[in-house]
Amino acid sequence: MVAKRIIPCLDVKDGVVVKGINFEGLKEVGDAVQMGVQYAREGADELVYLDISATREGRSTFADLVRRIALGIDIPFTVGGGIGSVEDAARLLEAGADKISINSSALARPRLISELAGQYGSQFVVVAIDAKKVEGRWLCTTHGGSRFTERELFDWAREAQERGAGEILFTSMDHDGTKAGYACEVYARLASELSVPVIASGGAGSVQDIVDVLTVGRADAALAASIFHYGEIPIPALKKALKEANIPVRL
User: Fold this and answer.
1) Strands (E), the chain
2) Tell me: the pLDDT tens digits for 131-171?
3) Which SS3 state, helix, strand or coil, does residue 10 take?
4) DSSP labels, 102-127
5) How many CB atoms lie within 10 A of CB 187?
6) 11 assigned to active site
7) Do 43 and 15 meet the contact criterion of CB atoms below 8 Å apart?
């Protein structure tokens, strides 16, 4: 069986890791490079860095940060935030990133997925989706969850896969930062409708939450931030518990 992955997510603003609840109320957590090095030592399978500054001036700064991260860690890492073209992606991949994540730009111009997959291969392209349940429909949002679209989660995820996405990273805005558990039924449906890996994000508060999303939710990977950033669940202890629950993980 393919091992399930544990992925700390680091939201970066001006080179500093920050965290909020439901995409709001950001607080500084720590240094982006140092935290990445620590997670790699603790046994994280991958890392995700999201540049939430995403200003044009910030992009060159973020590329410099990516170079320092690449020098400091020996596990794969994905970067995202403000990537609107093949050239933007090239800058980050050349700096040392293993994969790139696109969200708002893909919704605005879906052909970008195909362009990136055609240039680098699907394995380099993660399509992130931030969605919120509105009157029974999971609607996709852009710009860090601040703008709603008429695109619906499941249709958009299937289209992203068809256009060349190698992975889908879905964050439930209703669960993000709440530590109340993942939207397991949604991940289970995504897993049944897609052939590419699904990364679950939003709501991790306990070991059981992660067990649930990797079993009931059928997710291929669990992404979390707060529980790792604040030392609530050490990665070695989490992986030991997952192993004891008969979930395949790399120890």
Assistant:
1) 5-13, 16-21, 24-31, 47-51, 77-80, 99-102, 125-134, 137-142, 147-152, 167-172, 198-201, 221-224
2) 999 999 999 999 878 899 999 999 999 999 999 999 999 99
3) strand
4) ESHHHHH-THHHHHHHHHH-GGGEEE
5) 26
6) yes
7) no
CB 156 within 8 Å of CB 129: yes
Distance between CA atoms of residues 63 and 86, nearest Å: 15
169: tokens are 């990273």
Positive or negative, the CA dihedral 84, 87, 91, 93 is positive
Catalytically annotated residue among 11, 45, 209, 220: 11
At position 82, the amino acid (one-letter code) is: G
The question of whether 74 is a catalytic residue gets the answer no
The answer to whether 224 and 248 are in contact (CB under 8 A) is no
Q: What is the pTM assigned to this prediction?
A: 0.94
- Which of 45, 51, 130, 212 is the catalytic position? 130
